[in-house]
Each structure stands twice: as structure tokens, then as C-alpha cells.
Design a protein that fits this description.
Layout: H1 4-32, H2 39-51, H3 68-84, H4 88-113, H5 118-129, H6 132-141, H7 145-161, H8 163-178, H9 188-192, H10 199-223, H11 225-233, H12 243-255, H13 264-287, H14 293-307, H15 320-325, H16 330-349, H17 351-355, H18 369-392, H19 424-454
């Protein structure tokens, strides 16, 4: 007799296997036709410089802005390239390729643990593996963001699966992610504040998370403290996406230059960093320990995309696996808008990223500026819409829960969460007020550019 479980298994496994086969095949094909350009070329140079016995943090500011574990990944790809005579752009991209496979597996396993059917878990996992944003960043662009995404998703999965027994492993996974790129630090209060941990365990979580980056930074910091601070902690990002990029492309149409006037770029990045930080604090005060952690991370990255101006192309992939874990169908429309934005960006600045060795283009194609303008406008506009919808429907409903929400213990109430305790509403209100106050400075910078465009 065929059971319902047998039918679920029979329908789910072909979807999962098909997603993996097609997703890996597409990534491998794009990788094999890629060329060494932009970030990959820069990371190759850093890897060679490091292997030659030099301290990359002695380079000028922003030349080596990744933490030390990233140097090991770059150097290992260079050694593999030397040993096998396989081009660096291929050996290096094995890291994000393997990370995407791991992320797909973790998504599937965690959704099964959250009591989704095998079919639904397979569909969500396949949606990640076939996601065009993930494919572009991993196989065409080439960077380490998919690796930090995998480790961050793994950290979330471990803490959700068994907070008391696996919190140390979760913290270690998150710590290694931070030791590669800094952005996963945004998950630290979310995971350390997960229900079921004692105060001692929360403190240990923070300490263990700090160890990988902290220990690996020591020799470099002793050698050149100013270099570490200037390269890693002083990095301001690029105005490639977000509303800062919209202002910049408008300036390009008027003047032919890509540099906004005066100190506007630095002013925008500085103040919007504070804007995002305060909005993030308000979100933490509301949601830590009470909301689905994947949804909380999704909302965090939406705030980042909408409010912060120092954004690069590879950041677009950060949100994808967490939105999928949250079961948020908006991720499909976001992926379409982000694909538009990424294609516009690459076609304008780095056509070789898109077309690889299939054809040749110069480093910049001004004719594609309108495509880039439309893409970043669509991407920022949809991210804003998604954020507004997410905030409008923020709620904590313990009567009807499914997916990861169902894993939050029923015994948890807002009064029993250690994070900020009874001060949650006060902190949230103060953070929102501070966030609104920073928008005054943002408004001044934006109107300054608009007035200059009109002049």
C-alpha cells in the first residue's frame, strides 16, 4: 500500500535532485566561460601578494578590506591554480560553488526539521539553487559572499535545531563567516537572542563568535594596526546600488562624470550608516527572540538595501537564502528586480562579467547607462516596497504558526526574553526617533545634488 509519506518522497526527491543538477550545471558552465576581471582579478592580486610573504593590510586603505580568513581562501585558490594550471578564476569560484550546494542542502534539511513536507522543502531548496541572483554572484561575478551566506545559514540552522546543545557550533560557524566578510555580524544579536538559551550561553555565544576573526587578526594588527583599521573597519562601500546610485547615474547623465559633487558621497555613506544602524536597533528591539529568525534577518537586509548607500553588486545575494527560509514569496519578484539591476550594472561597468570569453567588450559601455539606471531604480524601488509590506504586516502570532515560526517554544513570551527585557519599547522608540533625525542630513545631501542637477 502506497502511503502519503511515500508519495511525498516520490514527488519531493526529483524536484530536489533536479534543482541541484541544473543549478550546479549552470554555475559550472558560467564559471568555465568566465574571465579574470573586477573582484576576481583584485582578489587574485591580493592572494599572490599574501603568498609572497607580504601583509595585505599594509596596502593603501580599501585595497584589502576582507578579514584574514578570506586571505586564506584567496591564497588556497592561487596555490590550486599553480598546482593544476587551472586559471584562478575557476579555482577561486569553487569556494562559492561549493557554498551554494551546502546552502541548498541546509535549506532543505532545516525546512524538513520545521515540519514542511518533503515536496515543499525541495521546492524552496530548488528555488535557491536556480535563483538567478545566486548564479550571477557565484559563477559570473565571483566573490566570497556565497561562502559567508552558507556559514550564516548553517549557524541559523544549528541554533534552531537544538539551541542548548548546538549553540557553540552555531557561534563558531557565524564566527568563521565574520572572519571572511564582516556583514554576518548583523546576525549575532539575532542568534545569540534566540529563545531557549541561558544568559551564560548567550555570553558564550558572543565570545565564541568573536574568536575566529579576533585570533586571526592578531598578527596583522600587531604588524600594522592602522592598516587593519583603515582597510577593514574604515571601508565605506561603493555607491553602486541604492538611492545613492540613482543620484550618481542622474549626475552622470548631466555631467558625464560618475563622482557626485563635493563631499556628498562620503556624507551620504556616513549618515546612512547611522540611519541603518538605528533602524536595525529598533528592529532588534521588536523582534529578537519573538520573530522567525530567518524573517528577522530578511528584514535586516531589506533595511540595509533601502537605507544604506554604500552598496556593491554582490550584496544583492545576502537576502536570498533567508527569505527562502522564511517562506517569503516576495523573494521571487525581488530576484527579478535584482537580476535587472545586476545585468544593468555589469553591462555598464563590466560587460566581461556577463559575457566572459564568449565575446569581448571594453571595460565600460556608456551606451548601457540607461539600462543600469532602470535596473537600480527597479531594484531599490522593489526593495522599498518589500520593506514597507514587511513592516506593515509585522506581528507575533502564536496561535497559527508554521515553518520556522512553529519551532519557537510556546512558553516564550516577550517578558521572558533576555534581550533588552522590559526596555524593548523604549529602545525601539528612541532608535526610530534617532533614525528619523538622521534623515534630515540625508535630505540635505539629496536636495544638494538635485539642486545641482537643476542648475
Amino acid at each position: 500500500m502506497v502511503t502519503r509519506r511515500d508519495l511525498d518522497l516520490a514527488s519531493g526527491m526529483p524536484i530536489l535532485i533536479g534543482g541541484f543538477v541544473v543549478g550546479i550545471a549552470v554555475r559550472v558552465w558560467v564559471i568555465l566561460h568566465g574571465v579574470e576581471v573586477a573582484d576576481v582579478q583584485h582578489l587574485h592580486n591580493i592572494g599572490r601578494y599574501f603568498l609572497a610573504g607580504n601583509d595585505p593590510y599594509r596596502l593603501p586603505p580599501f585595497e584589502s578590506n576582507f578579514p584574514p580568513i578570506a586571505l586564506l581562501l584567496e591564497a588556497s585558490a592561487e596555490l590550486a591554480s599553480r598546482f593544476t594550471n587551472v586559471p584562478f578564476q575557476i579555482t577561486f569560484k569553487i569556494w562559492p560553488l561549493a557554498a551554494d550546494v551546502g546552502t541548498g542542502l541546509v535549506i532543505f534539511a532545516l525546512l524538513l526539521h520545521a515540519r514542511l513536507s518533503r515536496r515543499r522543502a525541495a521546492v524552496w531548496s530548488a528555488l535557491f539553487l536556480l535563483n538567478p541572483v545566486s548564479i550571477l554572484i557565484t559563477a559570473a561575478h565571483g566573490n566570497l559572499d556565497p561562502v559567508t551566506n552558507f556559514l550564516s545559514v548553517l549557524a541559523l540552522a544549528l541554533i534552531v535545531r537544538n539551541p542548548k546543545r548546538l549553540f557553540a557550533w552555531s557561534a563558531l560557524a557565524l564566527g568563521v563567516a565574520i572572519g571572511i566578510k564582516p556583514n554576518p555580524v548583523l546576525l549575532l544579536p539575532i542568534l545569540a537572542g534566540y529563545p531557549g538559551l541561558s544568559i551564560r550561553q548567550r555570553v558564550l555565544f558572543v565570545v565564541i563568535t568573536a574568536l575566529p576573526a579576533g585570533l586571526t587578526f592578531i598578527p596583522f594588527f600587531l604588524d600594522t594596526p592602522d592598516g587593519v583599521i583603515g582597510n577593514v573597519f574604515g571601508y565605506t562601500g561603493e555607491l553602486d546600488f541604492g538611492y545613492g546610485a540613482i543620484l550618481r547615474i542622474a549626475w552622470y547623465f548631466k555631467t558625464g562624470g560618475l563622482h557626485l559633487p563635493g563631499t556628498v558621497p562620503l556624507d551620504l555613506v556616513s549618515v546612512t550608516r547611522l540611519t541603518f544602524g538605528l533602524a536595525y536597533l529598533a528592529l532588534l528591539a521588536y523582534g529578537v527572540g519573538r520573530m522567525n529568525p530567518a524573517r528577522l534577518v530578511t528584514s535586516t537586509y531589506l533595511l540595509f538595501y533601502v537605507l544604506f548607500t554604500g552598496q556593491s553588486a554582490q550584496y544583492a545575494v545576502w537576502i536570498v537564502p533567508f527569505a527562502i527560509l522564511a517562506g517569503d514569496w516576495f523573494v521571487l519578484a525581488y530576484s527579478a528586480a535584482a537580476l535587472f539591476g545586476l545585468v544593468g550594472f555589469y553591462s555598464f561597468f563590466f560587460p566581461q562579467i556577463l559575457f566572459g570569453d564568449l565575446t569581448w567588450f571594453p571595460d565600460q559601455l556608456p551606451i548601457n547607462a540607461p539600462l543600469y539606471a532602470g535596473g537600480i531604480l527597479a531594484m531599490w524601488g522593489f526593495s522599498t516596497l518589500w520593506l514597507v509590506v514587511s513592516v506593515a504586516f509585522l506581528r507575533i502570532d502564536r496561535r497559527e504558526r508554521s515553518g520556522l515560526d512553529a519551532l519557537l517554544p510556546d512558553s516564550i513570551s516577550s517578558r521572558r526574553i533576555a534581550f533588552l527585557g522590559r526596555f524593548r519599547p523604549v529602545v525601539a522608540l528612541l532608535a526610530v526617533a534617532g533614525c528619523l533625525w538622521t534623515l534630515v542630513s540625508v535630505f540635505r545631501s539629496v536636495t544638494f545634488v538635485i539642486d545641482a542637477l537643476r542648475g
